[in-house]
Design brief:
single chain, about 325 residues, alpha/beta, Nucleotidyltransferase, domain 5, 5-stranded mixed beta sheet, 13 strands, about 20% strand, binds zinc ion
């Protein structure tokens, strides 16, 4: 394959890679997602990260066959826009011409846009834990909870919005979700929702090391690494909130499996990757009582591509 660029645009970080084939990048760069300046600042940061990754590979952006970008929000490939990427920037509520903005910053390189979780799932099917699977759900457990669905070997996008496993209802009248509805998986398992919950519990007098660890690390939000650290310290609040997250994820994923009867489920995303196999095993076990065909569960595995899956999948957008 030609040398391509891949960008994983997330709420916390921007991961850029330059890759030829397989899963080993020729160059890589990761920077925090800018919290100020809205979509233009994000476009500038993406271009910086990609230039740095290309430099590490001994190349210029213009040497690349193209650059794929996996982004949250609604993607319009014809218009080259990303709309409502609010997990990336609170100012990204409207439509932003990301393709053209990147092309002009990257010496005219060809830019392809894709949905972040769908490209992440594609990467797992082509290069990772889902290889040779005809049907699969890729679950991305991070700031939010998203999924990509592969049926008969092809991505299933529905009418453009398929895969919103984070907004499957696991508790009628339950906790308010970041989407404004109630009882969604993401209301319990999304890192953003979990942080809001933790802050509320602290306001009501509960104790936790979560925010101490955050300050020690000079962060402004609870990253996956901070959650993992608090769990290692057996922090009560973190353990409680993660237990609830696992239960909600397991119920939501099992319900999706009852509907689609896929061969495999791949668990990735910032938290899924950081917490790793022990938590994949917990999700697998907690799915079991919810499975209609409990004698024949799907294979539930951790992402094989980890942190780089999104960027590798984005690079696959460049044919
Ligand atoms: Zn929701």
């Amino acid at each position: 394959m030609a040398v391509r660029g891949g960008i994983d645009l997330g709420g916390t970080k921007i991961q850029a890679i330059v890759v030829e084939e397989g899963t080993q990048p020729l160059g890589a760069n990761r920077i925090p997602t800018p919290k100020q300046g809205g979509p233009p600042a994000v476009a500038e940061a993406i271009a910086d990260a990609l230039r740095a990754a290309a430099l590490e590979a001994g190349m210029q952006p213009s040497d690349l066959a193209g650059v794929g970008v996996g982004s949250p929000g609604s993607i319009d490939n014809e218009a080259g826009t990303v709309t409502r990427a609010l997990n990336v920037s609170p100012e990204w509520s409207g439509s932003f011409p990301l393709r053209d903005e990147l092309r002009s910053r990257l010496d005219g390189a060809a830019i392809r846009l894709g949905n972040d979780v769908r490209v992440g799932t594609l990467a797992e099917v082509r290069l990772g834990a889902g290889r040779d699977r005809g049907s699969l759900i890729g679950v991305f457990w991070g700031t939010g909870v998203g999924s990509g669905v592969i049926l008969d070997g092809k991505p299933w996008g529905g009418r453009g919005a398929a895969g919103e496993i984070g907004h499957m209802v696991v508790r009628l009248g339950g906790r308010t979700c970041t989407c404004g509805r109630q009882g969604c998986v993401e209301a319990y398992a999304g890192r953003k929702a979990m942080e809001l919950r933790a802050r509320k519990m602290v306001d009501h007098g509960s104790h936790t090391k979560l925010f101490e660890i955050m300050e020690e690390r000079g962060r402004e939000q609870l990253t996956s690494g901070i959650w993992a650290r608090a769990l290692e310290h057996e922090d009560k609040m973190a353990t409680h909130l993660i237990d609830q997250a696992v239960a909600a994820l397991a119920a939501g994923i099992a319900s999706a499996v009852n509907l689609l009867d896929v061969e495999a489920v791949v668990i990735g995303g910032g938290l899924g990757t950081r917490l790793g196999e022990p938590y994949v095993e917990r999700i697998r076990n907690e799915m079991q009582p919810h499975l209609f065909r409990d004698d024949r569960p799907p294979e539930v595995v951790g992402s094989a591509l980890g942190d780089l899956g999104g960027a590798l999948g984005a690079a696959l957008l460049v044919g």
